[in-house]
Amino acid sequence: MPVVLGYWDIRGLAHSIRLLLEYTGTAYEDKMYSCGEGEWCRQGAKLALPKNYLLQGTFSHNKLTRKLHACGETEEEMLRVDMLENQAMDFRMSLVMICYNPDFEKLKSGYLEQLPGKLKLFSQFLGKRKWFAGEKITFVDFVMYDILDQNRMFEPKCLDQFQNLKDFLDRFEVSNVSWDSQSTLAPVLLCPCSVCCWP
């Protein structure tokens, strides 16, 4: 039975999971729900769900990545994955919080002022490594690709002073080309309209 990835019809937290599923060639159904009062809100609690059905996003993500062996192999890699996963969520939420805020225009400049400092920390954490945990790709690379890509769409020049982060994005995108010729990953990966919805 293929994995069913159910999420709102936005890029959101599900995008990095989609990328990982595509990368690993995992069969899945991408079930998108309309935001607001829609099918999921009416039916979600009433569904007769199988006992291995995972509702919470981070838990589902972690279980999937363990199953796909995408959490690092050595103790150091696993520690780097754990540290970065939590830091990445904080970074993502800082962008999300302004993008969905009615005072977006007032908050945007403050976000952009602190962005170089945050990017510098990620640049230092990556260092000269090929991937964030080491020489092999792990799920946090999918998460970081998604977050850095969203910030790049938000402010196209934000990575100009962080060559290793730009190289990371390029490496990620190039590795995507050979994943699966039947994949629909490329349009999903490059579609700017699927980034978070700011005014």
Characterise the protein shown here.
This protein has 199 residues and is mostly helical. The chain has 2 domains: 3-69 and 179-194, 3-Layer(aba) Sandwich (Glutaredoxin), CATH 3.40.30.10; 75-177, Glutathione S-transferase Yfyf (Class Pi), Chain A, domain 2 (Up-down Bundle), CATH 1.20.1050.10. The protein has 8 helices and 2 strands, in the order βαβααααααα. A two-stranded parallel sheet has the order 1-2. α1 (14-24) crosses α6 (139-154), α4 packs antiparallel against α5 and α6 (139-154) packs across α7 (163-177). The chain starts with a strand and ends in a 9-residue tail after the last helix. Mean pLDDT is 77; it is low at 51-60 and 177-199.
Q: Enumerate the spans where pLDDT stays under 50 for 5 or more consecutive residues.
A: 51-60, 177-199
Highest CATH level, the class of the largest domain: Mainly Alpha
Could you give a short account of the major beta sheet?
A: 2 strands, parallel
CATH topology term of the largest domain = Glutathione S-transferase Yfyf (Class Pi), Chain A, domain 2
- Tell me the CATH architecture of the largest domain: Up-down Bundle
Strand neighbour order, sheet with most strands: 1-2
> Count of helical segments?
8
Q: On the 0-100 scale, what is the average pLDDT?
A: 77
Count of DSSP strands: 2
Structural class: mainly alpha
Instruction: Estimate what percentage of residues fall within beta strands.
Output: 5-15%
Radius of gyration: 17 Å
